[in-house]
From TrEMBL, chains A, B:
Protein name: Antibiotic biosynthesis monooxygenase
Database matches in PANTHER family: ABM DOMAIN-CONTAINING PROTEIN, BLL5343 PROTEIN
Domain of life assignment: Bacteria
GO MF terms, alphabetically ordered: monooxygenase activity
Keyword Oxidoreductase included in the entry's annotation: yes
SUPFAM superfamilies cross-referenced by the UniProt entry: Dimeric alpha+beta barrel (SSF54909)
Keyword check for Oxidoreductase: yes
Gene3D superfamilies attached to this UniProt entry: 3.30.70.100
Organism: Streptomyces dengpaensis
Keywords, ordered alphabetically: Monooxygenase, Oxidoreductase
Length: 116, 116
């Protein structure tokens, strides 16, 4: 259990974009963890970045969803130099397979349990 | 490690929809697992259902992405009687908080490592 407060990214006012990245990793680390942490920090510098949700089933699928205000923000992140290098290493070393879906959010809502 | 082949849902021909459900659970099971399995089976009966990706970090966030051909399919699944009952139980018992994003996929692609 992580010691920080765990919460999914909140519903933003549509339209905005959800970039869904689903992946299965190769065996072994090869620096993946450090790079993933670095990317999580770097993406925060992109104007229009709204947040990221990530979950990984041990030994199974990883699902990461990045939220962006518009296409400009997605393109800026996709073209970021360190991120491009990480994408190349991902295909060369880290990923067995992945799928990327770029999707425009039309509606969203959130739920939070009331405290008794 | 699961003993079946693990693969993310493949990129379909756009447009299609990705329904992103991110959640944090309450403590305790209360029948959640059985219902989740039942829902995974039931949704397959919905015309236009394309597949589902799920990952859950132990003690952390769960991310589920359901893929549907169109809005009609999403609405049919949302209104399905057993699914509606499960949604109500989710808010009453299983979820601490969640966010739902309904998004139209504009582009997608996949990668698969070549076998040496």
């Amino acid at each position: 259990m992580s010691d920080h407060f765990i919460a999914p990214v909140a519903a933003h006012e549509p339209p905005y974009y959800a970039v869904v990245f689903t992946s299965v990793r190769t065996e072994g680390g090869n620096g993946y963890g450090e790079t993933a942490e670095r990317m999580e920090e770097l993406v925060k510098d992109v104007p229009g970045y709204l947040g990221m949700d990530h979950a990984g089933t041990p030994g199974g699928l990883s699902v990461t969803v990045g939220y962006f205000r518009d296409e400009v923000a997605i393109k800026e992140w996709g073209a970021q130099v360190e991120h491009r290098a990480a994408q190349q290493r991902g295909r060369a070393e880290w990923y067995e397979r992945y799928t990327l879906h770029v999707a425009k959010v039309e509606r969203s809502h959130g739920f939070e349990r009331e405290r008794g």
